[in-house]
Write the structure tokens for this entry.
Amino acid sequence: MDLFKQQKVEDFYEIGEELGSGQFAIVKQCREKTTGLEFAAKFIKKRQSMASSRGVRRDEIEREVNILQQIQHPNIVMLHDVYENRTDVVLILELVSGGELFDFLAQKESLSEEEATQFIKQILEGVNYLHARKIAHFDLKPENIMLLDKNTPLPRIKLIDFGLAHKIEAGVEFKNIFGTPEFVVSGAS
Ligand code: AMP
């Protein structure tokens, strides 16, 4: 059985403007044709051969999808659907349209204690939810902390990008050095 839908994503979604990109992924706004609802489509480039260093290995893409499928929390981006074609796996994600928390704060003249507390609380609730399920995000950084809608009095935080996330197995030592270089303090173990 195919893990991901093999139909053309363009038959079901109108693909719109680019929202952002990562090393091997481009995220575009899209609209579901049947419902008119807006989502974000993350096109992840598949690695085409074992020898290649470009693109993402299939097991890594499956891990990201698998973890997202286990998550349902108000402060974490939700996965709606997954499509696949020869070159990409396309994650249809909840649209997080308020931009990065960092940019929001940089543009603000001042931040009240109440606002700061609310942001920190939401971030910690998201992380606590993950850790209670033994999921480590491994790439928490300002770019991955976004706002659902910045035009509300207390914007809702959404943690995004589960490309490096791992489930930590009890009794199994997890050793790896990864993350975004500026934010890696030391190798996790
Ligand atoms: P990622 O590789 O998942 O970090 O995505 C790359 C960039 O795309 C992010 O830094 C965001 O700017 C944007 N992005 C990712 N997911 C979403 C989303 N669900 N809604 C809106 N923009 C997103």
Observations:
- The chain is about 25% helix and 25% strand.
- The longest strand covers residues 13-21.
- The chain has a mean pLDDT of 93.
- The two ends are 35 Å apart (CA to CA).
